[in-house]
Design brief:
olfactory receptor activity, Olfactory receptor, three-stranded mixed beta sheet
Length: about 325
């Protein structure tokens, strides 16, 4: 246990103190992290290299994958390192950066999911105007707005959160510098500003959720008028998982951020934090991209080409 009397950092006490369980946690998180990185890097690479996928939908998917890589890299590697070294200490500077980047990236992810739902709405409900509405300039401005919104949210939370006087031991019962858990360290009634900021960002997230749901309701109502059952099934199988993932992400994050701070940390806090920090970046590549027929076709083609090239290379080597 690190002595914090001469340090300005915090202790992250999210998982068990048992050494064997710490190793299990580190290995489990490492596997999840590698899966998330592999899936998202694969998507970015395929979309970048294949010119058939240079359309607004895949343009936004690429940035969603980039956000997923960044957001899971903010929290999970630090947690893995802490478990492997049996050192739960995190410096004040690291904690500030972790809070800023996590809030900024999470806010950006909500924003880009909203943009993606609008893109699907225009593509299905207004197909004749799609090229005009979702032109390259609009897509670029949308992505820029996503990053700006995320940066503003991250800056607001960071400035307000780290201006709050802290009382008692600087121990965070979480595997990363989670804002709701840090509020438990605040002196009495000193966290009202952070609660106000959290409520504001949660309200903005709720508005995004309503926009997403409204877009998909319009999409479903349009699809139901299509006589082809096969086309209806295809759209529903694609859109329903999208709605589920967005709702799951926002509801778990909103529940954790809006709950009043408690002096008795529980396993529920840890579970909900995993739901909105680790699960979405790992599942998004499967839900949004790898189930897509065009993506699967390009991936299959790429793998087949790579396999053929390696096979020819080995034949050449053996002939020598």
């Amino acid at each position: 246990m690190v002595n914090l009397t001469s340090k300005n950092g915090f202790l992250l006490m999210g998982f068990s103190d048992d050494r064997k369980l710490q190793i299990v946690h580190a290995l489990l998180f490492l596997v999840i992290y590698l899966l998330a990185l592999t899936g998202n890097i694969l998507i970015i690479t395929i979309i970048t290299l294949d010119h058939h996928l240079h359309s607004p939908m895949y343009y936004f998917l690429k940035y969603l994958s980039l956000l997923d890589i960044c957001i899971i890299s903010v929290t999970v590697p630090q947690s893995i390192a802490n478990s492997l070294t049996d050192n739960n200490y995190i410096s004040l500077g690291q904690c500030i950066l972790q809070v800023f980047f996590f809030i900024a990236l999470a806010s950006s992810e909500v924003a880009i999911l909203t943009v993606m739902s609008y893109d699907r709405y225009v593509a299905i409900c207004q197909p004749l105007q799609y090229g005009t509405i979702m032109n390259p300039s609009t897509c670029q401005h949308s992505v820029t707005a996503v990053w700006v919104v995320g940066g503003i949210c991250g800056l607001m939370h960071t400035v307000v959160n780290f201006s709050i006087p802290l009382c008692g031991e600087r121990v965070i019962h979480q595997f990363f510098c989670d804002v709701p858990q840090m509020l438990r360290l605040a002196c009495s009634h000193e966290f009202i500003n952070e609660i106000a900021v959290a409520a504001f960002t949660t309200l903005a997230a709720f508005i995004c959720l309503i926009s997403i749901v409204f877009s998909y309701i319009r999409i479903f109502s349009t699809v139901l008028r299509i006589p082809s059952v096969e086309s209806q099934t295809k759209v529903f199988s694609t859109c329903l998982p999208h709605v589920f993932v967005v709702t799951f992400f926002l509801s778990t994050a909103g529940f954790e951020f809006l709950r009043p701070p408690s002096d008795s940390p529980s396993a529920i806090d840890l579970m909900f934090s995993i739901f909105y920090t680790v699960v979405p970046p790992t599942l998004n590549p499967i839900i949004y991209s790898l189930r897509n027929e065009a993506m699967k076709a390009v991936l299959k083609k790429t793998l087949s080409k790579e396999f053929f090239q390696r096979k020819m290379y080995l034949k050449t080597m053996f002939k020598r």
